[in-house]
Amino acid sequence: MGNNDEQPLPINDDETVQNIAIKDIKANPYQPRKTFDEQRLEDLAGSIKNHGILQPVVLRKTIVGYTIVVGERRFRAAQMAGLDQIPAIVKTLTDEEMMELAIIENLQREDLNAIEEAEGYRKLMDDLNLTQQQVAKRLSKSRPYIANMLRLLHLPISIANMIKDGRLSGAHGRTLLTVKDDYQMKRIAQQAVKEAWSVRYLEQYVNEHFGKKNETNSKNQATVKPKFIKQQERQLKEQYGSNVTIATRNKKGQITFEFTSEEEFKRLIHQLNEKYHRDL
After folding, report:
1. Distance (Å, whole) CA 122 – CA 131
2. Domain map of the chain by residue range?
3. Contact between 199 and 175 (Cβ < 8 Å)
4. What are the ParB-like N-terminal domain coordinates in residue numbering (predicted)?
5. More confident residue, 275 or 164
6. pLDDT at residue 187, rounded to an integer
7. pLDDT > 90: percent of the chain
8. Signed CA dihedral, 5, 8, 13, 18: sign only
9. What does the pLDDT average to over 147-164?
C-alpha cells in the first residue's frame, strides 16, 4: 500500500506506539534527501486519508518536542492529509545514530538511482568516518560492490546527471569509466543515450575502440593473454575489489592494481600488507 513504501526500523515488542502531535515534530537535520516528489506525496496523503498510517514513524525526543528519525515522507504526507497527530515510536539516539539511520533510510528508497546510492555510501564514510568494509557490513553488502558503486562518483557531472534522470544506468557508468578520457567519455555517453545502447553493446563498443586498440599499441601486448592469466586477473579483482591487469613480456611480468582515490589506494595497501603478514 502507498504508505508502506519506506523501509522502517525494526520494532521491538517493548516499544510502544504513541500518537504525537504533528505540530511538535521537526524534520531530521541530518536527512540527506532535500527534495520530495510532490505528486507521490499527494498520492501518499490520499492513501493516508483512506487507510491511515499503517507503519509508525520513528522519533527522537528533544527539549522542545521531537525530531524525525525515520519516516519523513509519511510525516509530510500526514501534514498534507490534514492530520493533527501521527503514530510514532520514540527512541533514545545519539546525533551519530540519527545521522546513520537517516542515510540508511534514504538508501532504502525504491526510486534511488545509482548515483544517489553511491553518494549515500560516500556520506556514510565521510560523516561517520567509516571504511568501505564497515559500510558493507552495516548494509549487508560485499565490499567490492560498495567499491564499484563509489567509482561512479568519478564520472563527469553531465554523465552522472544522465544516470540520475534514468537515461543511463549505473552499469553504463561503470563501463564508461574504463574510457579514462573525459571528452571521449561524454561523447560516447551522448551517443549511447541518443541510440539507446544496451550495457552489453556499450561494453563491446568501448572494448573495440579503447580496449583492443590500446592493447595493440601497447609495447607490453605482444600476444593474446593466456586463459590462466585472465583467470588470475578476475580472481584478484574479486579478492581486492579493484581492476587488476597482468602483463607479461620476455619472461618478465607486471601486476597492476587500479585505484581512483586516495581512500581506495590506502585500502589496497592495507589489504596487501595484511596478506603479506598472514603469509609470513
Report:
1. 10
2. 2-94, 157-217, 224-280
3. yes
4. 18-107
5. 164
6. 93
7. 28
8. negative
9. 93
SS3 of residue 43 by DSSP:
helix
CB 65 within 8 A of CB 26: yes
Which segments of 4-158 are extended strands (E)? 18-21, 25-26, 57-62, 65-70, 85-91
pLDDT digits (tens, 9 = 90+) for 108-139: 776 788 998 898 889 888 888 889 999 899 88
Dihedral, CA of residue 230, residue 231, residue 236 and residue 242, to nearest 10: 50
DSSP state for residue 49 in the 8-state scheme: H
What is the rounded average pLDDT of the residues 219-229? 62
Q: Which CATH architecture has domain 2-94?
A: Alpha-Beta Complex (3.90)
Strands 85-91 and 57-62: parallel
How far does Cα 167 stand from its chain's mean position? 18
The CA distance from 110 to 116, in Å, is 12
Q: Select from 132, 119, 217 the least CA-distant residue to 173.
A: 119
CA distances from 153 to 47, 77, 188, 264 (A): 36, 32, 18, 13
At residue 49, what is the residue type? K
Which residue, 121, 155, 114, 92, is CA-closest to 32?
Answer: 121
Q: Which residues are catalytic?
A: 72
CA distance 103 to 117: 10
For 110, the grid coordinates are 525504491
Q: Which of 276, 176, 144 is nearest to 136 (CA)?
A: 144
